Amino acid sequence: MTKEERFVQFFIFFIGIIIMAFGIALTIKANIGVASWDVLHIGLYKQMGLTIGTWNIIVGLIILSISSIIMKKLPQPGAYINMLLVGIFIDLFLLLPIHSNWISMKLFILFVGILIYAIGMGIYISASFGTGPRDSLMMALHLKKGWKIQNVRLIMEVSVVIIGWILGGPVHIGTIIISLLIGHVSGVTIPYFYKKTKKIMEMIRLKNEKKKTMVI
Predict the structure, then answer these.
(1) Is the pLDDT of residue 21 over 80?
(2) Residue 59 and residue 38 in contact, taking contact as beta carbons nearer than 8 Å
(3) Whole-prediction pTM value?
(4) 136-147 b/e with 16+ CB inside 10 Å = b?
């Protein structure tokens, strides 16, 4: 892979992370319940301080460490970059003055957040630069322990919701809505952006091959 290809790959990954973090922040701003992992992050934030984004990073680091032990190798660099950038950008986007007391507006913010979240996920994953900590652990348990992905995901999601709820994290109607919708929406966005990114990378490769041919 050329420097240009690596730059484009990272740029797509980076843009996807920013968009995804904005979507996550919107689901939190809706204030009617959050995604399972954010229930845990907010619960930890309420009990111990720091910031929601910081807890996203700390929890991510712990999960990556567990994944490394299970797989007996370090995850891709993109997993660490993902962990850091998502946490940082979540904190930045949470500073935006987005809020409402109307339930209809709260639901609107939540649905927009879910859509943006799924779009960002599709873009960053399409770059193939490394998945996030949670997905890394899910795949590690699937590959090394032989557990079904859907079972691993279910156990992880339910466990963090319970722990987060005990710590004071917000479990509400939004938590259920996100759980029901995010899989379906990302099931559309991930394949779509995989195709788009593949086309972009192929165009760059063809352009570089033409340059080499012209030089020869």
Answers:
(1) yes
(2) no
(3) 0.87
(4) bbbbbbbeeeee
